[in-house]
Amino acid sequence: MILGMPMPLTTNASSLHAGLIDTAAGSLVRDAEQLWPTLSRLEGTYPGFTSWYWNKVVSGLSRGTRHLFWEGSLDAPSAVAILKREGGESKICTAWVAESERGRSLGRRLLEESIEWLGEARPLFTVPAERYAEFEPLTRRLGFVETTRIDSLYRPGVVEHVFNGSLTPSLNT
């Protein structure tokens, strides 16, 4: 359905809603494609990120179970969040802020928007050990509670701090 075009008389509210979701999902998939050149460097931090992004995130955007928020332009974002709301799980999968933009509250704003979209005051969230000190003030401010630590969850020998729930070790989240 093209927005702004007259609806055929046989269109009902649910098909209109489905058309709007399809349009929004298609737009988010295109946005994901434009964000990729910036996000691709996360493969170095999270092995398997490329496969996860294209197979899980992009397909989830199409189904409405994943969402993206970003600050700045699509071709040079200042910050990006990737969210998952599926199978009873609400998770902030990725929270990334460009190094040059850190300390300007972009991460806080992005996480607050993420919490609102997820509909969960304390969604599942993980932070690698080397970024823990950087995220600690923000997680505390948002009321996140560290519930466990998992060694080698995403990278061998690296502890991942898990907030607000439990997480089964898997690259498929």
TrEMBL record:
Gene Ontology molecular function: acyltransferase activity, transferring groups other than amino-acyl groups
Keyword list, A-Z: Transferase
Domain of life of the organism encoding this protein: Bacteria
InterPro entries documented for this protein: Acyl_CoA_acyltransferase, GNAT_dom
Annotated ranges, domain N-acetyltransferase: 27-165
Record protein name field: Acetyltransferase (GNAT) family protein
